Amino acid sequence: MFKKSFHIFLGLFILIGYISFSQNKKIEELTDKLKNCKTDSVRANLNYTISWEYLDINLDSALNYNQVGLMLAKKMKLEKMEAFLLDEQGYINLYKSNFENAISLHIAALKLHQKIGDRLGETNSLNGIGFIYDSQGNLDKALEYYLQSYKIIKEFKNKSSESTVLVYIGGIYQQKKEFQKALDNFHAALQCNKEKLNSMALGDIYGHLAASYSGLNINDSALVYGFNALSNYEKISKTNGRVADALNIICDIYKNQKNYEKAIEYGEKSYIMSSELGMTNEKNSSSQSLAESYALINDFKNAYKYQLIHYRIKDSIASDSKVMLLEMKYYKEKEEAIQKKEKEIILYKEKVTQWIYIGITIFLIGIVGLLFWRFKSKQKSHRQLSEKNKIIEDKQKELLDSIHYAKRIQNALLPSEKYIKRNLNNLNKN
Q1: Who has greater pLDDT, 410 or 292?
Q2: Which of 130, 290, 314, 398 is deepest in the core (most CB within 10 A)?
Q3: Which domain holds residue 151?
């Protein structure tokens, strides 16, 4: 119980039935808003929000909405939104166990947060990378990224975020069995934001405290925090997976105190509830605790019964793990095939675009060539016409010159007009 600290993130620990009802209703409301929304920036934000809502219901739907949001964010150059969508896609890939893709996406988001100076956004990416290493069992690397995140959060004095990251850090120390360091961080997380934590978050921290005190064999304190966890989970619902977890840790604490009657009482409650809810891991834990408790009071019949159940569930989990591994490989191959196809489409589009550009270039060159040829043709025609006009003008000038010359000769040979008039007058007198 309480082994994977990253499970606290995203507030996914709500009643299964309640999740389905409330989230489906919220998704319907958000999708209605999305249908009627005309602004791309708002549409990007709505796709981001819907994707989160689908994260614990349908990962494929979560990814689809995320990708649409990411496309819109890039189109609108909304770098902050783009970074958060990349982080969100990182979490989706983490849940799909695509760890390499998840880390690449968070690193891309981290670089974008750093580029735009979004320090708090950086913590989202750093936590995401920490979750991945945490889930892979690389606790030192997980701790390294959580501590980087915590250092930034401390600068902003954001108590809510500080409390959350302290729980992540405490969870790592708990898994490393460094229980005192785990306790220090869990207590710090509790004191940091106790007044504002809801019942689920309080239950998680109390559960971690119970497990850590139990690890140090401080069972009285462990029991107090175990019941505090149970009380907070029951405020949400009397029957849910976290209640079953709390009942089982109380069972283990009583077992450590050698109060086997109480251990069996709470172990049975956990087993029944986890069976009813179909929670395999919780049922596996409670059956193992019950087998050990019954064996310690020499009730070997019930010890054998629960040990057998435990082995069957364990085998089933191992078988499921193999199926999950095959499923992971299948989805990985499927994703690689999709990515390959997408690359081929991109390359094809690039080639088509290239040929279109080449075609447009050739067309423009042809148009320019045609215009140039027409210009040169007109220029040539104009020159020829000018030459013809000049010839005509020269001929005309020659002709006029000849006429003027002939007129001058004529004028030189013929008597003047005065002379003719004078002689005519003399004749008339006679």
Answers
A1: 292
A2: 130
A3: 1-156
